[in-house]
Amino acid sequence: MTLETLSPGDADAEGLDEAILDALAADGHRFKVWGGDWCGDCQRQLPAFGAALAAAGVPDDRIEAFPVTKGPNGKEGPGVEEYGIEFIPTVVVEDADGEELARFVEDADVSIAEALARDLADVEATA
């Protein structure tokens, strides 16, 4: 099973600030993305995030997509329990050592890329 909604399709990253693209492109950042092609929030948000990752030049080997299904007890799929995934889309950014740096869950007042870039800037400022 794949996560087709992460494909940029017709979405583009035009208008994203260079600082956002730079934050996404930082060396060692790994992106773990949970979503479902059946999910309206994912259909609305993930193509633009996929376009932002592409515009930032994030290589495919640093992006892991985890398709989620609806089960009788909630969300089901790879890593759902391990990462505590309750809502989708969820994007976890980890460093090269696997330490979580930022997390986007379901919705925000800005795009996924902007929310993660903001959180990553906060992490960098306190490092």
TrEMBL record:
<dbReference type="InterPro" id="IPR013766">
    <property type="entry name" value="Thioredoxin_domain"/>
</dbReference>
<dbReference type="InterPro" id="IPR036249">
    <property type="entry name" value="Thioredoxin-like_sf"/>
</dbReference>
<feature type="domain" description="Thioredoxin">
    <location>
        <begin position="1"/>
        <end position="125"/>
    </location>
</feature>
<protein>
    <submittedName>
        <fullName>TlpA family protein disulfide reductase</fullName>
    </submittedName>
</protein>
